[in-house]
Amino acid sequence: LVTWLAIPPLVKGPLERIASEQLGRAVTIGGIDFQPWSLEFALRDVAVAGANGAPPQLTIGRVYADGELQSLLRLAPVVDAFTIDNPVLRITHLGDGRYDVDDIIAKVTAPKNDPEPDQGPARLALYNLALTGGSIDFIDNAVNNTHEVRALALQVPFISTLPSQREVKVEPHLSFALDGSRFDSSAQGTPFAQTSKTDASLRLAGLDLVPYLAYLPANLPIKVQGATLDADMKVAFEQQPRMAVKLSGTVQLSSLRVADRQGANLLAGEHLKLDLADVRPLEQMVYLRHVELTAPVLTATRDAAGQINLMQLQPGTPINPAQQPVQPASAASAPASKAARAWAVRVDSAAVRGGTLRWADATTRPAAALQATDFTLDLADIALPFTEASKPFSLKGGLKLQDSSVQFSGEATDRKAQVQAQVQALALQLAAPYLAQVLEPTVAGTLSGDLGVQWEAPEPKAALAGATGVTLTAGPLALEQLAVKQGKTTVASLDKLAVEGVLVPLDTRTATLAQLTLTQPQATVGRSA
Q1: In this structure, what DSSP letter does residue 1 have?
Q2: Does the N-terminal or the C-terminal CB of the chain have fewer CB atoms within 10 Å?
Q3: Helix-strand-coil percent breakdown of the chain, rounded to 5?
Q4: How far is the C-alpha of 230 from the C-alpha of 426, rounded, in Å?
């Protein structure tokens, strides 16, 4: 009786204060109901204030949770039923990927001064989740339009990271009305379909994503300019041998076009297909049978300031290099044990077919411009994160550079790697912009033969001393029809330079050469007036 009377008024104030601090917005709760004999808990009339005096960002009529005594034994929430009634959400798009909830997102995702060690997904077991009577108003100020979602209803059998077994009373279900168009998972001919009591499917065919791309957040490191989505996925709620939410099926993006932050071309591709075998987000596990990218065109550039566009794609990297964020001292000194727990990712095979690689470098004079075609790449047996017992994944592929070709193969882990390449008639003129920085005469010729790179992570002490663990190998390798010209005058020429058994450990700055052969060397020596 005491807890029934005392807990609601004692909890209400602190709960409002904590929620307001976490969101950076005023949070109010109309009332709290608590039944200690059944551990039933409900919040009534919850509201999150809008920005700058705007109407409430979110209101919820009632949040109800039916807890179980197992929660006390497991020190984690075990809930038999969790329902949200009559939620109303208002989101305003301000333009250029900015929203009126950006301050909340920044507040929630801001790094903590003293982060707790990441123990993986939260320990919880929520059963019979239901949302009823939901409404969403999406106000797009950029085009002066409002999209409305009404009668939103969602039922999920469970979300659990604990081996607890509880009775499941709801079936997967989703229904809503979007701008007057009705969708219901229990109806035929809609993107959502219910396949069994514990399974649900999602099917999309030729969905053009262009109308929705303007709503992507502005702080993304890339700009998606076009894509078409096809999906045939199954969501399974498995209870045996353990509780799991499993995703499987296929997802494909077609006519993909991606630009960098400045709007310059970055990546385009005909198809990107993912074959999902077993994806379990609550357990941070991803298993893909196959990933394939068809006819990609990757454009890499280096501007006059030496900035490479690919290096600027990391999340949080400022567009202006001078605006580098200052890392808090506490974050810089945080031990490695507090790093986020890595997802377990397994990919049986991955492939790139018919690719084109473009490279433009504005730091050279003249500017360098290279293009590789017919790029292929095959990867197999990828498993991340790497462990001491991990087997290396294999790779092989090839490409064409004008009239020359390069084939390569190898294997790698996070501690060592080796790649062997076979080069056929690679023209030295391709490197002319870079050779011009150190050589005034022009160089012509072709390179054919075998090249190799071996890498093994050095010991910590050696790494601090500047060791790289990289060894270059070559041979048999032939440089043919070599000609060094000053203007129209041939200064030196060589029919063929052949080497065997070249070994260059970069750490020791020494080189081993088994054999060197020069064929028909010629040189012209003179002195001008």
Answers
A1: -
A2: C
A3: 15, 55, 30
A4: 41
